[in-house]
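note to self: dont lose this again. the chain is below, predicted strucutre after it. 429 aa total, dont forget to put it in the shared folder this time
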Amino acid sequence: MNKPKENQIYDLCCELFPINRSITGAGVRETLSILQRELPDFNIREIPSGTNCFDWIIPDEWNIKDAYIIDPDGNKIIDFKENNLHVVGYSTPIDLTLSLDKLKNKLYSLPDQPTAIPYITSYYERDWGFCISEEQKKNLKNGNYRVFIDSEFTNGVMNYGELFLEGSSTDEVFLSTYICHPSMANNELSGPAVTTHIAKHLQSIKNRRNSYRFIFIPETIGSIAYLSKNLDHLKENMIAGFNVTCVGDNNNYSYLPSRNEKTLADKVALHVLNHLKINYKKYSFLDRGSDERQYCYPGIDLPVASIMRSKYGSYDEYHTSLDDLSFISMEGLNGAYNVYIKAIESLELNQRFKNIVLCEPQLSKRGLYPSLSTKESNENVDTMMNLLTYIDGDSDLLSIAEKINKPIWELTEIIDSLKDSNLITSVDS
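---
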């Protein structure tokens, strides 16, 4: 398959991992600048704080320089610079001395995961807090603690990235991924890293039939903002879309359908997963939790589905410090990459054809009927005749491939033979 060289996707995750990201701020811009290095035609865009986007408003930009807690003995026991998950996202600046009892009201931990630091945010309510492992929290001694957060809110911008690759058709395939979480590998970085290399692969294809639009956005507010600016265009041009997230681990795959469950994106996702004989769990749209909420909302109704490894919220490491670089792997990332490449290949191959010859054609005079009857040749003839039976100018090739139980990518040579023999012609070209 079309694999990036060796560890390229994993290496990109490693480079991005230390950066502190939120829905706004310097960390997002640093992340986008690295992606722009990988994709030179990549555009970094901005939306000012206070901008109305449907029912939402772009919040003030948030940046943080430092944060820590010092115990009664003068030891720095929590340090943002050691792990950026230690601070609740969008925490207000603070410099206080508190008793342990009062401090505990601002400490967040996971009793059922004693070694994990949780990921907590408070984007739209001004507050502050620290995240800590349950083990460390239990060992805190009585006394006074100094808490310090050096953060600021400004009337700034929310940034996102966009890349458009034009094809011969105005039909667009849409890939969305998010760049708004701090140091978490599967939930955050696997999506942008895999999507970047999908874009690189598509850039190398000279004769793209479909056009491709990639966006790298803050989750939720980013998709809402993007839709508020581009909904009409997307509704007119998008034929299929995917929300790319949680694609880095070695566990089985997950499929989350669109709200409609019958879009072209759904059909392609299931076609690829089934014909690659991949173990996967099919979820309901009731299990949604990422930007598909926005893309598939009533009135929006874009054809967006998701192919994941371990679905967000379904694995213990999710939204904790345990979702680190050891939780993802080169094999997991490359596997998901190859699944998406197959999905894109399927979309490129998917066209409508119509028969030119009335009644069943004679294959032998066109050199399409084998002179020797073998198991393989008989199967090829059966596939060819089945294709001709269902090629009617209305059914697309993906639907026909499903009906005759063949992967669409295995039909390419037969389709080319039928076209070269003037038996069929493309309706869509």
